[in-house]
Amino acid sequence: MACLTLSTGVPAVQAGPVMGGGSDSEATLKDRPDTKPVKCVGLINMSNGLVLPKGKATASIKYRYVHKDTLYDGGDAKSGNYGGKYDRLNQSVQLTAKAGLFEDFEARVMVPFWDKEVKRKAGNPPAHVDTDSVSGLGDVVVMGRYALMSQRKGDWMSLAFGAGLKLPTGDADHKNELPFSNAHTYIGPGGQLGTGSWDPKFELGATKFVDRSRFDVHFMYTIPGDGAHGSRKGKQFKYDFGYGYALNKYFDVELELNGVDQDCHIYDGELSRASGGHTVFITPGIHWKMAEKCHFSMGVPLVIFRDLNGYSATPDRNSRFGLGEEFQVVTRLAFSF
Taking the model in full, what pTM does it have? Predict the structure, then answer.
């Protein structure tokens, strides 16, 4: 269990002078070679615009806990005793490795392992009848990123563009149990370990260091392909804005704005109108720089806006409302080499 509380994501920022002047500028440090600037490491719940130098590498382990236990009609919580899915718990451990392969170009691979559990009701009145769970390897993502600008090289900021592919490595064949198998043989694409599809991904990120502060912006767009058993996940656009501040050589604090806009999924060849939606989080976090090339981070994403898809005029005991999370925590252990 201790291992599960460790986590991965954006790897540690490489040691080096902070560009842009100030008391820890590169020019000042030339006169103090034994002094290194105090810098904020990468933010916990988002990526950035940095590209590793050629020959450098990082690795990380990220653990994410997400609990969804409230149905929503748009942004309004439903208080009735509805049928269908009413409680979902997703846990993931993601292994990430990054390497600077060439000048201004890095490659990264993300390997997720999932443990998913969903509770469902059926009958009239609805009552709990099923707890369905799956665990194992998810869909691996491989991406490359190119530096358009680099603050490390003297530009006023770092800017990078990336592209990659989500591979269908996770099991997409988990079946429903009775009575839900009467309607759908297979559980929906959001409940499987994988989607069975090849999904292109595109990203744009920017990072700016100013003394002990860092500013990050990142956008990711995913275009899902056709998945298993007539399913297809909806297109997804993620946007993130973050600020981090290095309190000292051991601790940073951060604050992020994270948004996810998800189209409806296709399930058994039909549009699932109770899936997807738009959710915005505020994520406060803290980083412990336990060593020069190792840090541990933790953040708690808090929902500040949600507009989940679903029917607005369905019978009370219909399950066609969006299921939204009420609690989430993210942790990460990262290393640089």
Answer: 0.86
